Amino acid sequence: MRSAIARGAPRKGVLRALAATVALASAALFIVPSAVSAAPVRRVDNPYAGATVYVNPDWAARARSEPGGSRIANQPTGVWMDRIAAIAGTSGARGLAAHLDEAVRQDSANGSQALVFQLVIYNLPGRDCAALASNGELGPTELDRYKTQYIDAIAAILARPAYANLRIVTVIEIDSLPNLVTNVAPRPTATPQCDTMKANGNYVNGVGYALNKLGDVASVHNYIDAGHHGWIGWDDNFGATVQIMCQAATAQGATPSDVTGFIANTANYSALREQFFTANTVISGRPLREVSGGWVDWNRYVDELTFAQDFRSRADSQCFDANIGMLIDTSRNGWGGSARPTSASTSTDPITFMNQSRIDRRIHLGNWCNQSGAGLGERPRANPAAGIDAYVWMKPPGESDGSSTAIPNNEGKGFDRMCDPTYTGNPRNNNNMSGALPNSPLSGHWFSAQFQELMRNAFPRL
Ligand code: BGC
Known about the structure:
Number of strands: 13
Number of domains: 1
Bound molecules: beta-D-glucopyranose
Order of helices and strands: HEHEHEEHEHEHHHEHHEEEHEHEEH
Radius of gyration: 21 Å
Helix content: 25-40%
Structural class: alpha/beta
């Protein structure tokens, strides 16, 4: 873990001067291609500012092989290290060093701009404790294997001098800490595996270890996964989630300054902006949030932008630095297409008003697998709104969230009925239909029909 982290604006001038000196020194020692970003990266306030972002050639090739896919094949998407074998590479995917070599090539081709490399860290012991589709390879007690064979191995590669000019963005362990808040006893949504992972501390310790070790690499910018508004937006969940983030950011040698920020909506479908109402919109004398059993149902938020901005402020007021920033995954939250409302409903019944006016067309906010009707969201870009470092496509569009039937595999993927369109639900989606597309492959595998629908329903349109 590094002690002094320079992310504050006032120090940037000093840093740049320092970086220039380092660049000169290294230029004397090594042959440095003139076009790559000028100097080894020290952590910056917003890594996306003034940078281009790595395009994964393997995802791009799959996108390009689809009719119409070339319209988005050049968009940057996240590179997921979803098991130990992914570090060296598997038959379907190149390994981490091969990606970073390609990132260096893209950096040298983008003029003097820096290049961001987006890496998803996703392999905790007892992973995905409230679902089965991405259960993972490590059992609940295998924290040591996580540390030595996964995090240490990744950190060693990221620290290679050849990659020192890249701005590495790491997304830390999707869904893990929020699960310890909402899916544990005595809540009706509890699962035995989430109770186990809370009791044994291995999510908190795993995240702490990852923040600390990866944070030791000067070019790494850690963003912790913070769920999404349709999960953490209720008062009972929001503050407790920030608290557990603080706990993880002080576990295993980590400090809050190892954290550049948080990411909302990773691989989820929550709308960026509900255009036609807020939680406080009053219909027939009642604020929408106070209508029990309605779409909002006491949530403070109806969309990701307001949730992410408030999450940032709350985290800052607790243990995190004032200059933390947020990412929002907009890969699949566009909700364009014919079902998208074009104006607010005129209904005076609040429940009907919400259902007719909402951009998010899911059956229930708790649905998360291969959602029918979804579209690509905002294209990735830096500094889109106050407090938001970037809109990103961390989940590569076209990669499945889980299989709609059981498929034997050696990737640690189970079968979750939330991916089965005939499933009638559980307490976590209030016993609604799953809303999943049929005939889906294992999580992470290419799902052409979904890719085509995401393009058709893109908003903004392609
Ligand atoms: C899967 C991973 C995959 C990732 C990105 C996750 O749900 O478990 O295997 O790499 O999605 O598509």
